[in-house]
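Field log, afternoon session.

UNIT: design team B
ACTIVITY: writing a sequence onto a fixed backbone
BACKBONE:
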C-alpha cells in the first residue's frame, strides 16, 4: 500500500478506532487527537511495505505513541496538583453520534479512567491493550518493550487496582437514571436518611475545578460524609440536566447558558458508588456544551 492517497484513505477508515484507543490510554480527548495525528505522521513516513498485519501494526503504532506521551507526562509532571478528572464524553439522553459510539464501544467510565491515571505508563498500556482490546501478551510485550511474562504481570497489577477502585456499573441505564434522580431529590429535600440509603457506604466523590476553581477540587469518601454535604447538590439540582456521561447516567449543570460542571455517576447494585465531577471552566469550554438547555428543570 505505497500510494499516499490510498494509505491516507485506509488510515482514515481506522481513525475513530484509533482515537478510542488513544482516549483510553490518555484520558484526554485533545491528547488523543494529537496521538492520532502523530501516528499518521509515522505511518506516512514509514509506509507499509513488508507489513503483513496492517491493522495490528497500526494498533502498535498508536499504542507506542501513547506510551511515549504518558512517559513524557510523568517526567515533566504536567498533571495539575490535586484532583485531576479525565475528559468526559457527554451526550444528551438517547443521542449518540458515531464518534461517541467509537469512543465508548467498550466500558470506559470516568471511574475507570481515574484509576488508569494512577497507574504507571506501562501498566496502563498493558491493561488497555489486553483487557479492553484483547491483544495477546506477545503483542503487548512488543509495545512496552518487555517479555510476554512481564507484560502479563503489568496487566495483572493494573487489573487488581481497577477491580478494587472501579466497580462495574449496573447495565440498565434507565435504572441508573432513577437512582441519580432520587439522589438529587433527596438533596433538594435535605433528606439525609434517603441520601445515606442511595449512596454506597464506600462511595467516593472526586471533583476537579482546575486552576481557575481550585476551591472546587475535592475528594469526599463515605456515604455518611457525602450525605452531610447535601447542600452542595441542593443548590445545583434545579439546573442539573440529564445526560449520558461516558455511557452512564450523569448530569450537566448550567447557569445563564454556561456549563458549570459535568457529573458522572457509577450506580452499582442500585446504589451510587462514585461521583466524578469536572468543574474546570477551561476544559468545560472545550466539550461543546454551549448549546445545552439553559432552562431550569422542575423542582
Amino acid at each position: 500500500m505505497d500510494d499516499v492517497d490510498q494509505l491516507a484513505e485506509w488510515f482514515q477508515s481506522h481513525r475513530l478506532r484509533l482515537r478510542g484507543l488513544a482516549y483510553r490510554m490518555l484520558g484526554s480527548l485533545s491528547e488523543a487527537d494529537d496521538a492520532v495525528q502523530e501516528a499518521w505522521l509515522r505511518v506516512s513516513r514509514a509506509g507499509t511495505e513488508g507489513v503483513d498485519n496492517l491493522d495490528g501494526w497500526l494498533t502498535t503504532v498508536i499504542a507506542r505513541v501513547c506510551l511515549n506521551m504518558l512517559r513524557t507526562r510523568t517526567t515533566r509532571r504536567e498533571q495539575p496538583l490535586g484532583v485531576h478528572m479525565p475528559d468526559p464524553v457527554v451526550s444528551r439522553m438517547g443521542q449518540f453520534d458515531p464518534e461517541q459510539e467509537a469512543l465508548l464501544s467498550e466500558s470506559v467510565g470516568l471511574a475507570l479512567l481515574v484509576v488508569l491515571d494512577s497507574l504507571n505508563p506501562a501498566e496502563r498500556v498493558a491493561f488497555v491493550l489486553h483487557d479492553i482490546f484483547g491483544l495477546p501478551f506477545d503483542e503487548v510485550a512488543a509495545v512496552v518493550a518487555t517479555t510476554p511474562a512481564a507484560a502479563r504481570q503489568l496487566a495483572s497489577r493494573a487489573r487488581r487496582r481497577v477491580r478494587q477502585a472501579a466497580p462495574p456499573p449496573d447495565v440498565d441505564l434507565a435504572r441508573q437514571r432513577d437512582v441519580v434522580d432520587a439522589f438529587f431529590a433527596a438533596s433538594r429535600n435535605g433528606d439525609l436518611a434517603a441520601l445515606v440509603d442511595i449512596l454506597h457506604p464506600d462511595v467516593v466523590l472526586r471533583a476537579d475545578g482546575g486552576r481557575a476553581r481550585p476551591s472546587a477540587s475535592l475528594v469526599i469518601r463515605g456515604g455518611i460524609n457525602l450525605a452531610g454535604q447535601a447542600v452542595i447538590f441542593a443548590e445545583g439540582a434545579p439546573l442539573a440536566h440529564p445526560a449520558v456521561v461516558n455511557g452512564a447516567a450523569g448530569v450537566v449543570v448550567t447557569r445563564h447558558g454556561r456549563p458549570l460542571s459535568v457529573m458522572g455517576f457509577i450506580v452499582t447494585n442500585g446504589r451510587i458508588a462514585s461521583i466524578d465531577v469536572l468543574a474546570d471552566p477551561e476544559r468545560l469550554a472545550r466539550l461543546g456544551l454551549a448549546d445545552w438547555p439553559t432552562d431550569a428543570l422542575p423542582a
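LOG NOTE: Residues 188 and 274 are 19 Å apart (CA to CA).
NEXT ACTIVITY: expression trials, pending approval
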